[in-house]
Amino acid sequence: MTERLLLTLVAVLLLSSCGCHEEWEPPSKSLPKASVVVLGVDGLDRVLLERLIGEGELPNFARVMDEGVVADMQVSQPILSPRIWTSIASGYAPEVHGVLDWVRPNGEPYRAGDLRVERVWDAASAAGKTVLVSGWLMTTPVTQVNGVMLSDEIVLRGSLDSGEGMMRRRDPAILDAWLAWPESQLAQVQDWTPQGTWLESHALSYQVESYGADLHPLARDETHVRSLEALGPTLPADLSMVYLSGADQLSHQFWPFVDPRGVEAMTREPGLRQRSAAQLLKQQPGKRRVPLSDGPTTQADLDTGARWVVDYYRYLDQVLGRVLARLDKTQTTLLICSDHGFRLGNRPVPLFADHRGPALLIGWGAQARPGARARTDVTMLDIAPTLYAMLGIPAASDMRGRLLDDLFDVQALPPVPTRVRVVAGAVPGAPADHPRRSQLEALGYIDGQGAPIPQPGSQ
């Protein structure tokens, strides 16, 4: 990190170091120069999104979709988030970049050290661009960048101010794996992490209480949004990539309550969900209790269940509004990507949702062509080459994706031969208390022994 960036970062952190921020007050400045901002929203479903917009909800999503470009985005099978988000960030297919699932067959999680390719921020840093990467999957351990990186595991376990989180139980080597900035300033991240009173007063407080404060994704997503708000105006970053996981986590549990087929099944047979949940817990004893399954499904259960996903979409719309308030449309290009939507599929019981394709791409701002339509299918491999062009950096000739110059005003530079790199070998296995394990088990990706569970086919 350059001396200028280091001084800037230290100044920002010192301004927020009182440790008493229950109400978040980010800097008021907008992003001060031409830049690219990517919001990765895991599990953002286009069908539900457009339904809620049609009902008069989600004004900020309505705005960017009306003023920008919108396209379905094809993704690879099986539809698994770490595969897709790594392809989006690198421009390479899973069999090339090396991340094939959440965990290997032996139960060890894939980590950043397993990647065999550069991601866009790696190349941007090497080219002298400034980057901010916050929460993107497969960023543990972090790499040193020309800017700041917060790993995807930083707030998966506990809060930073409670004494139960990483500041108490993690040694310096692990802290170094979670944050790419001066160790002397690590404790200041607690000013971005939502405090107890903030969570209690939030519109989603009913979710935090029911889901568990250490597991509910609101604290995680809010932390990474705040990193953009706090550092974006003063870093400043040529490329910001922020990943939000909450919509995916809640949809896995509560999608049946927003899917007409699920509602119809639970209404027709009120005891179906309870019986199915009991059977599932026998098969997977370590799995977290299935919500709203302690008794026959009532109308109150249907009304409550329907709130969870919809209310989180409302929160994401507010997040988008906060981001838009900092962007100069004439200077900055915003990309919003998902990796999949959801469906009930062919499962006979309305317990959980399966992933479905296609995913979603929204482009807005300086380089977007409002109302443009893609001349051919957009794929997950097209995002990285397009980001390279937006940043004025050459992509690689062995990338299979295309430049989205039908949707954005971009021109490619002559490519380099490849951005595949040589890796000495797999990184060591994660410790037994790896913070993502309980989350993956609760969502049905791994069993009680940590082995991957085959996922249903997706459409």
Question: Could you provide a short overview of the structure?
Answer:
This protein is α/β, with parallel strands linked by helices.
Ordered list of secondary-structure elements with their pairings:
Layout: H1 3-15, E1 35-41, H2 46-54, H3 59-67, E2 69-74, H4 81-90, H5 94-97, H6 120-126, E3 131-134, E4 147-150, H7 166-169, H8 172-178, E5 179-180, H9 196-201, H10 205-211, H11 217-231, E6 239-244, H12 246-254, H13 260-268, H14 272-283, H15 299-324, E7 332-337, E8 341-343, E9 354-356, E10 359-365, E11 378-379, H16 383-391, H17 437-442
Parallel strand pairs: 1-6, 1-7, 2-11, 3-4, 3-6
Antiparallel strand pairs: 2-10, 4-5, 7-10, 8-9
Task: Explain what the structure shows.
By secondary structure, this protein is an alpha/beta fold. The protein has one domain: Alkaline Phosphatase, subunit A (3-Layer(aba) Sandwich). It contains 17 helices and 11 strands. The strands form 2 sheets. A 9-stranded mixed β-sheet has the order 5-4-3-6-1-7-10-2-11, sandwiched between helices. α12 runs antiparallel to α15. The longest helix is centred in the C-terminal third of the chain and has 26 residues.
